[in-house]
Input
Amino acid sequence: MLISLPVVWIIIIDFVGWFIIHMSVAYGITRLPKRYINTSAWLYRQRSWEKRGRIYEKLFQIKRWKGLLPDGAALFKQGFRKKQLASPTREYLQEFILEMCRAELVHWLVILFAPVFFIWNWWWAGIIMIVYALLANMPCIIAQRYNRVRFRRLLARMPEA
Output
């Protein structure tokens, strides 16, 4: 802990800090022009260990819980809702994939902020903040990756326009 504060202030700063981080990153990435989201970038590539999405079905039982995740896009005017498909067209699926990449980026960036909490928290509380960041964001990342694999497979089967 670099900054010593009363426990009540540490707790308040932790809650407010996470809220500000989540909202700021989400807002900033939502405002990022589409041309800056490269859906073929390393971060968004399908990995062999994902086994074409089956790992998410078998290991994580994703079909049981992914519908319970909130759609953060509803918080912002420019947000792209991802709860359900609005159109079966090729263009819409491509945009949906782009927005899933955008959402995944938000959650990875939020996780990266966790070490900041070591500044005013005890070391063990800093570890708790890292665990929180992972538990709060990994389900969303898993859902984005799982859906993107499925959507890319669907897009590959669609005839070119």
Summary: The chain is about 55% helix and 0% strand. The chain has a mean pLDDT of 91.
